[in-house]
Amino acid sequence: MTMSLDAPDETMLQQHFDSTIAHEHRVEPRDWMPDGYRKTMIRQIAQHAHSEIIGMQPEGNWITRAPSLRRKAVLLAKVQDEAGHGMYLYSAAETLGADRADLTDKLVHGQQKYSSIFNYPTLSYADVGVIGWLVDGAAICNQVPLCRSSYGPYGRAMIRICKEESFHQRQGYELLMTMMAGTDAQRAMVQGAVDRFWWPSLMMFGPPDDASVNTEQSMAWGIKRHTNDELRQRFVDMSVPQAEKLGVRLPDPELAWNDARQHYDFGSVDWDELSAVIKGNGPCNAQRVAHRKAAHDEGAWVRDAATAYAAKTSRRLEAKT
Amino acid sequence: MTEWPLYEVFLRGKRGLNHVHVGSLHAADPEMALHHARDLYTRRNEGVSIWVVPAAMITASSPDEKDPFFAPAGDKVYRHPTFYEIPDDVPHM
Ligand SMILES: [Fe+2]
Ligand SMILES: [Fe+2]
């Protein structure tokens, strides 16, 4: 017979949850939380994890063709970090009851999304530098506030990730400085990469505030700390002086300092392009998902072999005792 | 394929510190869990020692029973050094 405990009723649990959020305390895995919070958190963390995993592809494309051993070692370490980020995040998603294999399944069947930026191709080695500078730079803008996410395991994963992102951005910028000090052809490669990646980087912050449906609830739950437009503005303000120092032109004729606002004004983003890419019609969507699926399928025999080996060794251990 | 079990990972950051929980991973056996933990959680010398524990083996208190469960410690303020008033001029205290 089990002892009967009075189950706390839903309103009391909700009140307890609300006060945890109101006091800026963290929600932890075994706490009661509203279904909507759990679902939103799983979706946010899974999308983020998928982005890290798919994000290995555009740069991984250049590992075998890195221009020197030094650049190759750096790029390998960077791409390996991105795999690690994906793993930290899948681990956080699992604390909410999500199943890792199921999340991978949803990714390769196109049922869950990842960041739009990774659906653009990398055409030259300068792209590796620009991705480090702008794409990881934009990711840092997005991620630093998420270290204070109300969901404990997600915040802790973000702290780890942010520490590593700084290396990503700096290696990219250093690579670009090296190329800018090189030949005219190298400088042209850098400018070309900036021209292709600037606008897609601005899209990484998501749709404009008036079209962003989930922002209000996410801010109330403490799982989003700034609006998309605030973060986009912060990124532009950070990037302009960096571009000047580098000696590249950002491809926006409307970019200008606004003394009254104390911010840079900038042109309007092509939101039709963003929604096309999100819907699966970017230049590389099909290729990215197919590549992820192939890697997973081709790894099946390794996973099976390891499982069989583990079963065999544990049988041997049992036989000995 | 049966899914690999989940292991929780604990790291000792440096000698003299406790192991601290850092996350989890899946592995076929404990040895693989250790190798994966090294690759995943100590790429920058974050640890000098790693524990991996099958998640299913962990027994945890549950937040709902938080108050009664931790109550024995709650009313024992005399376990804390600040409970005792010592004059400021007593050295090394
Ligand atoms: Fe990352
Ligand atoms: Fe990164």
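The mean pLDDT of chain A is 94.
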